[in-house]
Structures are given as structure tokens and as C-alpha cells.
């Protein structure tokens, strides 16, 4: 079910940086992410604005792009069917085209392992595809497909030899099995970080 923008109650309101309205991550876990973002951006986080949630706003990539394109500083939170919780941050804007971008501020993280994975110096920090949701890294380290709730459209591939992120041998950092196979997701959320 998709809620109309006008009917959404406080779900997308801007909240204080000490709180996050997430069904995936709790406030305590947010502290690790806040520190990582602030260190990279060299700015203090003032507010967080929820832009999108697949189970509320529509699971198809179209709805992600409609709500999140051309907005900088986004935090992506993902929960897989296997209850793995992970995501990424980019200061670059998502777009509806075929384009990859370098972002020295980008990183991936595992909430379950409480680890941050830094970006390498290549042009694939994020990849923008019209027919997909957010994608991080060469070889689709994290790629959300056309509709992750109806298909096994979530791919994680941290063991790819030319991966854009530093996993230091942690091949099961994000996915259930460390393989480039589609897995199902329960939900994903996108937040804008405001400095």
C-alpha cells in the first residue's frame, strides 16, 4: 500500500539528530553512523529527514527515484529476509540515468557486525540506474533491484575482486552468504542527512 504524500503523518518530518524514525535501526546504533558521517563530512549533523520507505511509499525503483533523486547526503538502511541489517551513505545525489559516481565520503556498514567499510578510490562509489533502487560499488556491492519486495532483487557482493569498498577479507560483511545471488529484503529506508 502506498501512502499519499499529503496523508503521511510525521513519518517524513525532520527530527532532531539524536532520534531516527526507523524500523531497521535503533537510536543506539545510529550513534555509530552519526560519527562516521560527521568525520567524513567534517560537519555536525543537525537533522535527519526520512525520504522513503519501501513498505510505505512503494517498493518499485520508480518510487525511490521519485522521492530521492537529486538530494545529497543520503543514508540507506536495509533489512534482508534473513534479518541482516546493513546499508550505506553517500554525499552524492541519486539520479535516474546510467551513471557511476566517485564519492570520497561514501561508506557501507553492517549494523549486525557494528563495522564501517570505507570506499576505495574508484569511480563506482555509487551507481545510478533508472530501473533499480540505490546501488553502491563496482560489481553491485549493494544493489536494490526493480522491486525488492516481490523478487529476490537485493544483491550484495562484497567478495567481488574489484569491489569498490574495503572489506578486508570479511566476505560475509553484508549478505547471508557472501555470494552475488539475489536475496529478498523485508524493507529499506532512505534518509537525508542535514548539516
Explain this structure.
The chain is α+β, with helices and mostly antiparallel strands. The protein has one domain. 14% of the residues lie in helices and 28% in strands. It contains three helices and twelve strands. Strands 1-2-12-3-4-6-7 form a seven-stranded antiparallel β-sheet, sandwiched between helices. It has a five-stranded antiparallel β-sheet with strand order 5-8-9-10-11, with no helix packed on it. A hairpin with a 4-residue loop joins strand 3 and strand 4 (85-90). The N and C termini lie far apart (32 Å). Mean pLDDT is 84; it is low at 1-10.
Task: Identify the notable features of this structure and list them briefly.
195 residues, alpha+beta, globular
Q: By helix and strand content, what is the structural category?
A: alpha+beta
Q: Please tell me the overall pLDDT.
A: 84
The number of distinct structural domains comes to 1
The low-pLDDT segments are 1-10
The ordered string of helix (H) and strand (E) elements is EHEHHEEEEEEEEEE
- Helix count, DSSP H or I runs of 4 or more residues: 3
What portion of residues belong to β-strands? 25-35%
Q: Using DSSP, what is the number of strands?
A: 12
- Rg calculated over all Cα atoms: 15 Å
What overall form do the CA principal axes indicate?
A: globular
- In the sheet with the most strands, the strands line up as 1-2-12-3-4-6-7
Percent helix among the residues?
Answer: 10-25%
* Spatial separation of the terminal alpha carbons: 32 Å
Profile the largest sheet.
7 strands, antiparallel
